[in-house]
Amino acid sequence: MAKKHGHHGGSWKVAYADFVTAMMALFMVLWLSSQDVKIKEAVARSFSNPFSTLTKQSTGIIPNKEMQAVKSSQGNFDSASAVELNMLRRLNEDLLATLQKHPDLDNDETVKLEMNNEGLRISIFDRNRKPVFDKDSARFTEYGRWVFSTLAWQVSRYPSFRVELEGHTERGFKPVRDDYGAWELTSERANTARRSLLEHGVKLSQIRKVSGYADTQPMPRFDPEDEINRRVSLMLKVADKLGN
User: Fold this and answer.
1) What topology does CATH give the domain 65-238?
2) pLDDT one-digit tens code per residue, 230-243
């Protein structure tokens, strides 16, 4: 009788274990049903082929299709991981929140943030009503100095991203002198931006390109003569596996 009682006394443990397993399975199903399509697809792939789920292009089972186009046409950049993509999104949100706190930026169009298949592009426009640079010069206005120092402080918090700087201007820019035209101006403005970033915490190793494009790359859907083309752009990209 003692053995029989002991046998029945242990059976509840097996039943309880089955119950806990069933509850865990239920919770997993509920969790999966609440996720977006990309995570569901990633989980499905992990069951169908578990050994290929974790690759150099991902830090886990969360897919990274949104950033698989980060590799440029020259092949300089690998796809971003989900962690890096989230960092870019966080930086985007932090910049928006910081800039919106400044009263001079209310309903203003000085800064435009754009997530694309390369990373995060930050465009700073030098508008007549709110100039970032002195006229026909690479010297910051007080407002421009504030804008770039604010951007630099945020970018410096993410040292894993590579920074590319581009200077642009509108078509019809009149050369300041014979040896100083649109190419010189846009190159110097990009370099002024670079120095500001470094002065406010961005690491020298993060800077990968500083270029002036004169009037050769107008903003899409805008007239090439429009002042909106007068800008400096910061492109934040994910470093490739070799650290380039």
Assistant:
1) 60s Ribosomal Protein L30; Chain: A; (3.30.1330)
2) 999 999 998 654 34
